[in-house]
Amino acid sequence: MIKQYIIYAVIGIAIIIIAAVIVKYIKKYRMKPLPMDEMEGHDFEYYCADILKANGFSEASVTKGSGDFGADILAEKDGITYAIQCKCYEKPIGVKAIQEIYAGRDYYGRMVGVVMTNQYFTQPAVELAQKLNIMLWDRGYLDSMDKTE
């Protein structure tokens, strides 16, 4: 009889732990909708440039739409020059964006390469960015920079 209670207690604890893990996972990956999620690509680039200016970046200018050589925004802050790739997608950002800004940073002779997005990054993208010294600014970071809300 006592063994049955122990078994039921263990099962109950296991269910509670599993439920807690599921809730934590849902909270971590469920995204609250943000205004930037509804933007088209070029509008998102101007939105990002405005956020950069509001955060002390100077000359945050959007490059031409096509043939931008991998950089959507060229900016400067505290003497450091940036080439920035903007990605407004519905899914996590992969390695292609990292490759694009790596090329764009060098093409424009900038010190820092950044990918800004309304999403998060895949693990391979994170690993490549670390290897190539590319900064990743995901939706959480971008939302924290947005002082208009």
CATH topology label of the largest domain? Trna Endonuclease, Chain: A, domain 1
What is the domain total for the residues?
A: 2
- Biggest sheet strand order reads 1-2-3-4-5
Report the uncertain regions. none
The helix-strand sequence is HHEEEHEHEH
Shape: elongated
Distance between the termini: 60 Å
- Helix and strand content put the structural class at alpha/beta
> Which CATH top level class of the largest domain fits?
Alpha Beta
**At CATH's second level, what is the architecture of the largest domain?**
3-Layer(aba) Sandwich
| Count of helix runs | 5
Rg over CA atoms: 21 Å
Q: Helicity level, as a percent range?
A: 40-55%
Describe what you observe in this structure.
With 149 residues, the chain is of the alpha/beta class. The protein has two domains: 1-30; 35-145, Trna Endonuclease, Chain: A, domain 1 (3-Layer(aba) Sandwich). It is built from five helices and five strands, in the order ααβββαβαβα. It has helices at residues 2-29, 41-54, 95-107, 123-132, 139-145; strands at 58-62, 73-77, 80-87, 112-117, 134-137. A five-stranded mixed beta sheet has the order 1-2-3-4-5, sandwiched between helices. Helix 3 runs parallel beside helix 4 (123-132). The protein is elongated.
